[in-house]
Amino acid sequence: xxxxxxxxxxxxxxxxxxxxxxGHLAVKNLRRLTDILYSNEGDxxxxxxxxxxxxxxxxxxxxxxxxxxKCQNCLESIEFKINTMTKLGMVNSFEQADKLSDEYEPxxxxxxxxxxxxxxxxxxxxxxxVFPKHTHCKFESLSSLSLVRPTLNQAAVIKKNPFSIxxxxxxxxx
Length: 174
Ligand SMILES: [Zn+2]
Hints:
Bound molecules: zinc ion
Largest sheet: 6 strands, mixed
Number of helices: 5
Low-confidence stretches: 140-160
Order of helices and strands: EHEHEEEEHEEHH
Number of strands: 8
Mean pLDDT: 84
Shape: elongated
Oligomer: single chain
Helix content: 25-40%
Radius of gyration: 28 Å
């Protein structure tokens, strides 16, 4: 088994020969992905097992690594770990994709040769949240609220005082 991933694969041929591929893929080579990331550091361990179940050709794609997303709250980096296995059912058309059993994600193949980076990038794009946020960013926004609160409290104190003065006056008057 090669440690080096090929640039192109023929998925149906791989399924026929029950091929296995593994290697590493640098995040910086995934252009559509790096467009939405905080940084293009990091890489993924990729493990692919091809085969057939009945007449259905499939590929089990395992990805293990991390990307750095941009927090939509503070615009700082968030490490987003990905450790996943997806079972892809190979299809030639949308009709075939519709008929695919639920255990497979459809992998639409138009040409004999598929650019491996593209195929993996498609999977990664599905896994990444559209509006990533730090979990602690909730607290950051709370602390920015608490910066506002003292002013609100002061205003409340000022508003409250005339009444307490009034009630004090009433009490005194009674
Ligand atoms: Zn954040």
